[in-house]
Design goal:
The chain is α+β, with helices and mostly antiparallel strands and about 260 residues long. It has helices at about 5-10, 20-40, 50-60, 60-75, 105-110, 130-135, 180-190, 210-215; strands at about 45-50, 80, 85-90, 95, 115-125, 145-150, 155-165, 195-205, 220-230, 235-245, 250. It contains 8 helices and 11 strands. The strands form 3 sheets. The protein has a 6-stranded antiparallel β-sheet with strand order 5-6-7-10-9-8. A 3-stranded antiparallel β-sheet has the order 1-3-2. It is elongated.
Length: about 260
């Protein structure tokens, strides 16, 4: 029996119901996914009916279907990949452990995934007050702004924005950033590498720019990781902002009993 017939049976549209149509489509698809995974007829990564298929078969508008699919992605049931379609989401997430200096590249590889990068922006800019404060530089010191899209298995994971002092990395604007890791380049070419970082984590909602880059709806849950990286001389060498998709990663930290108060 084809999966088409299976999902058609799960989604029952009642035009007279008070329940909005997009919720009927969403709940029907959710039941199809849950029952299929439990019964073995579906697996993580299987294709979900396309927006056109759902619209034509269920006789509802494309806008209704799009909203239902966006809600399912927001809840972590599906992943939507531009140009490829929608797929049942994998249950496991990348786990970023905070006990040590982590790299998205090495973490992805440890999960058996293939990491990749796309340069979205690379230019010299005037440092904002925030960048001046974190890099401990003067207002007129030029910095390089590097914005990259981080992917795993061709799926967008994070929008990564780095600010670096141009005086420390004078040829950074001409360097290749699509294939190698930034920290490897800093070490091999410039003899400078981060030995410690201070990181802030904050839950945020995806904005318009990030929505387009990460291929998730505006307002989706994400984590903002702000990082200041320091060299062996304890000099700030990078200020980084990474917006990571909430449906694809999580952070963990081991804690040990110390002196407790309260």
């Amino acid at each position: 029996m084809s999966t088409t017939h299976l999902w058609e049976r799960e989604i029952l549209i009642d035009q007279r119901s008070r329940q909005p149509l997009f919720l009927q489509v969403k709940e029907g698809l959710k039941n199809w996914i849950r029952n299929g995974l439990q019964g073995g007829s579906l697996s993580e990564g299987d294709r979900v009916p396309s927006q056109n298929e759902l619209s034509e078969t269920l006789r509802v508008s494309a806008i209704t279907v799009k909203r239902a699919l966006n809600e399912l992605q927001r809840e972590g049931y599906i992943q939507r990949i531009q140009g490829r379609g929608s797929f049942i989401a994998k249950k496991h997430k990348l786990e970023l452990k905070l006990e040590h200096l982590y790299s998205l590249t090495t973490v992805a590889e440890s999960f058996g995934m293939v990491p990749a990068r796309q340069v979205l922006e690379l230019k010299e800019v005037k440092a904002s007050r925030r960048v001046v404060r974190y890099l401990e530089i003067e207002d007129d010191v030029p910095v390089v702004k590097l914005v990259r899209l981080r992917l795993v298995d061709d799926i967008p994971l994070a929008v990564d924005t780095s600010f670096l002092p141009l005086r420390l990395f004078p040829e950074l604007l001409m360097d290749e950033h699509s294939h190698g890791a930034l920290y490897d380049l800093m070490k091999t070419k410039y003899g400078i590498e981060p030995v410690r970082v201070h990181e802030y984590l904050e839950p945020v909602l995806i904005n318009d720019f990030e929505s387009e880059a990460l291929q998730v709806p505006v307002g989706s849950a994400a984590m903002l990781a702000e990082r200041i990286a320091y060299s062996a001389d304890d000099v700030p060498i990078e200020y980084n902002q990474s917006v990571l998709r909430g449906d694809m990663c999580r952070f963990s930290v081991d804690m040990h009993k110390g002196s407790l108060s309260g």
